[in-house]
Amino acid sequence: MDMKFSGVIPILVTPFNEDESVDTKSIQTMIHLMKDIGVNGVTILGVLGEANRLTDNERELIITTATQAAEKLPVIVGTSATGTRSVIQHNATAKRLGASAVMVTPQAEPVPSDEKVFNHFQTILNETDLPVILQDHPASTGVHMPNELIFRMLDELTGFGGVKLEAVPTAPKLQSLKARYHEKINIMTGLGALYAAFDLEGGSDGFNTGFAFPEVLMVLVEASQQKDWVSVHRIYQRFLPLIVYEQHPGVAIRKELLKMRGAIRTARVRSPGAQGSDSISTTLRTLLKCTLPDQNVTRPISLDSIR
Predict the structure, then answer these.
(1) Are 197 and 217 in contact (CB under 8 A)?
(2) pTM value surpassing 0.85
(3) Which domains does the chain have, with CATH numbers?
(4) What is the dihedral of CA 28, 32, 33, 37, to 10 degrees?
C-alpha cells in the first residue's frame, strides 16, 4: 500500500471501555468517520495514543482492528520504545498486521548524544521493511535534535518516509529542512495544529495531529496550496479557541470531543491519566456552538461551511 506523508493524517486516540479494556468497536467507528471525512491516512499509538499503558497483546489487537477497518486507507503505527531492539520488534509486528508505515522518536539518554540517536535510527532502518517517519517531539522525548543531526540522518540513511516536526518554534526548522530538501522529503507538523497557519507558511506538507476536526485542517491545507493566506489566517483564527482548549495537557479533552462526535463511546482515559469533567464538557459545547453552529458534528462537517 502506497503512503504519501502529506495532507491530513489524524492521530487517533486509543478508546477504552469504562472498565479500561480496549474498545475495538469504537476504533472501527472512529476510522469509519475518518474515511467518510476523506483524510489521507490515520496514525495509531502516537504520543497521545496511551501506547505506554498498553500490553503487547493489546497493541496487536489495536493494530489489527485499525488496519482491518481502514482497508485501503494507510495506517501509520507509533512504535517508539526506549530500546532499539524493542522498536525493531514493534516494527515487525506492525508490518505483519498490515501497517503502511511506522513512526519513531529518538530516546533520551542520561548523557545526551547525537551519535547515539544516529545509531538508533541507523539500526532501526537497517532492520525495518516499512517506511519510517522520523518524529521530532522534544516535549515528550526530552531529545532535542539539531538541524545538523536530522540533515545527517536524511543524507546518509535510507528508509525514511517523512519527518514529523514538532520542535517549537516549528517554522524556522521547517524552513531549513525545506530549503535543503525541497520536495525530496515530506514534512508534516502536529502539536494539535496549535501553530497551523505558521507551519503552512513555513512549508509544511500538512498535519499529522489529533485535532478532533480534521475537516478544518483539510480546508487549511487546501487554502495554503492555493497560496490563499488570507483565508488560512481567517479560518485559523476562527478555530483557534477550540484548538487551544483541546491542547490542555493530557488526552481527556480530545476524547470528550470525539465522544461528542460519536466516534468513541466513552472518554475514559486509562489510569493513572486524568479524566474529563462536567465543566470541560460544558466549555466544549459552548466552543462548538461558536465555531460550528447548527452543525451535526457526528457527521463529516461540510467543507464549505468552514471555508
Answers:
(1) no
(2) yes
(3) 7-306 (3.20.20.70)
(4) 150
